[in-house]
Design a protein that fits this description.
Blueprint lengths: L2 E6 L6 H12 L2 E4 L1 H10 L3 H6 L14 H10 L3 H15 L4 E6 L2 H5 L5 E6 L2 H12 L3 H17 L12 E4 L5 H18 L3
Parallel strand pairs: 1-3, 1-4, 2-3, 4-5
Helix pairs in contact: 1-9, 2-4, 4-8, 7-8
The protein binds adenosine-5'-triphosphate and ligand L45E5XJ5.
């Protein structure tokens, strides 16, 4: 049985940074599930059809990391049929040996509720906005507004809302350097593996 690490949390909290590092450390596959929603939103047209017809090329679009793509993603992500269309791909990805790390909003609650480890990564709104603004070279106040709007939509939607699984380990990266956040996550996974050996 593959070892699954589910990572959820609000926008720009550091999920992807931790997920990539965990995948590299443990030799697992990694999927940034936000990219599926970003590609669906960016494709335009009927979002349900776009989600069903998503191709690997769609995930390579150069504009997917923009704030506009994030907003479009969070609008299509509220549509249950879009989520259903993207679910199968995520489940197949998660079934790969020796294990997989998936990061998103509903991995520990909906996609992989039986994941061996669930992390919920948070950081203060101001810190997240500053980090993402530095990454994209954009204005911090605009970014704060964008992230808060997206988090609100993601938390308040009826379909698979953003929330921590009851058994998730919360990692607050507000005052952690990247290396400290990664070390905290590796330690959490190590101890879960010792408690529940394969
Ligand atoms: N602990 C940290 N200290 C400083 N910067 C960080 C830290 N963790 C992540 N970052 C930076 O913050 C930004 C957002 O991180 P990341 O992309 O990992 O967040 P995310 O939660 O995956 O975002 P998204 O919601 O878009 O998927 C990146 O520029 C990243 O390099
Ligand atoms: N499992 C997921 C992943 C993402 N979303 C939606 O996509 C938006 C963009 O995600 P990023 O991780 O790239 O920021 C996000 O705001 C969510 O609306 C989702 O619903 N479920």
């Amino acid at each position: 049985m593959p070892f699954i690490i589910a990572i959820d949390g609000p926008a720009a909290s550091g999920k992807g940074t931790i997920a990539r590092a965990l995948a590299s450390h443990f030799g697992f596959h990694h999927l940034d599930t936000g990219l599926l929603y970003r590609a669906t939103g960016a494709k335009g047209g009927d979002p349900i059809v776009s989600a069903r017809d998503l191709t690997p090329d769609d995930l390579q679009r150069p504009d997917l990391r923009s704030a506009a793509a994030g907003q479009a993603a969070s609008r299509v992500a509220a549509i249950p049929e879009v989520r259903e269309a993207l679910r199968e791909f995520q489940l197949r990805f998660a079934s790969q040996e020796p294990g997989a790390v998936l990061d998103g909003r509903d991995i520990g609650t909906v996609i992989c509720p039986d994941a061996q480890v669930k992390l919920y990564v948070i950081a203060s709104d101001e810190v997240r906005a500053a980090r993402r603004a530095a990454e994209l070279g954009s204005d911090v106040a605009d970014m704060l507004n964008e992230l808060q709007q997206r988090d609100r939509r993601d938390s308040q939607r009826a379909a698979a809302p953003l929330r921590p699984a009851t058994d998730a380990i919360v990692i607050d990266t507000t005052d952690l350097a990247i290396e400290q956040a990664i070390a905290t996550a590796i330690a959490a996974v190590q101890s879960a593996r010792e408690l529940r050996p394969r």
